[in-house]
Amino acid sequence: MTEVRNTFESHLSTPNGGTSGENFVLPDFTDISEKGLYVPELEHDACGVGFVANITGERTHQIVNQALEVLVNLDHRGAAGADPQTGDGAGITIQMPDAFMRKAAKESGIDLPNERRYGVAMAFLPVDNQLNAAARQALESSATDNGLKVLGWRDVPTNPDAVGITARTIMPKFAQLFVEAPKGVEGDDLERIMYLARKSAEKNFVNAEVDEQTKETLLREFYVCSWSSRTLIYKGMLLTTQLGEFYNDLKDESMVSAFGLVHSRFSTNTLGSWKLAHPYRMLAHNGEINT
Asked: What is residue 32's three-state secondary structure?
């Protein structure tokens, strides 16, 4: 207890935890109702969140590159484990890059409808061929059940050599599912349909009657990063410097956006994993709102 108290007191000697200057004094605890117990000088941030945007709404590849640069500059806000080349997580959210997606889909034999008339599910899939096929079928079935037309799949090109051994060992497969909106449906209504399709697929997988080992694999490797007509997420169990090197898509000049939301993860009460990297589908945060 003495050692803990001395360590605590040493951090209170100055606002910066040093030993020079005036001593730092804790709030008067008799005045809690007004001042509370919060001491800003004791705050220790984790995770790094950054945002870059073109205020005129112009979509460029430069914005994507600048967002990735911001992410690299947030490297000190992320973390790695015993494997120094495996990060707790890094990722980026951008606007749907229609020109790029149209080109990439065409290369996979898929003709896309007009912009905003289609959605893309960015998915982590099991490595096992049988489970991979089951995951794809689950997503396709849930899409069809919710009125979406399945257009096809695209395997997302990656560079596994860019990541650490630990990340490679538990790395899932990466694929994008293209779906077409029902006639007359767009905007928020289309987003809701894709939300329901995703939740349905996830529920079916979680409730699948399989052995525990198989279910553990499914829960670890099956994950939908984003399913939207508006946004697209690239993320993973990566260091900030690895994201742009791992996903080849991010280097393409036609990968354009008017904004980029990036996140560098410092995991605390959960271990690093591919699916727990941020950004999430609706937000990226610096904190423990999940506990």
From this structure: helix
Q: What would the mean pLDDT of 208-213 be, rounded to a whole number?
A: 77
- Across all residues in the chain, what is the average pLDDT? 82
Per-residue pLDDT tens over the stretch 229-283: 999 999 988 888 999 999 999 999 999 999 898 978 767 666 777 787 777 777 6
Architecture of domain 46-264: 4-Layer Sandwich (3.60)
The Cα–Cα gap between 218 and 135 comes to 8
Rounded Cα gap, residues 235 and 92, in angstroms: 6
DSSP string, 209-270: ---HHHHHHHHHH-EEEEEESSEEEEEES--TTTHHHHBGGGG-TT--BSEEEEEE---SSS
Report domain extents, the chain.
1-43, 46-264
Catalytic residue among 30, 32, 41, 47: 47
Output 206 or 106, whichever has higher pLDDT: 106
Does 67 score more than 70 pLDDT? Answer: yes
Q: Supply 202's token pair.
A: 């996830």
Burial class (CB in 10 A: 0-12, 13-18, 19+), 45: exposed
225 is catalytic: no
Q: Model pTM greater than 0.85?
A: no
Residues 6+ apart with CB under 8 A from 2: none
Cβ atoms within 10 Å, residue 135:
25
- Enter the DSSP assignment of 76: G
The Cα 189–Cα 245 span in angstroms is 35
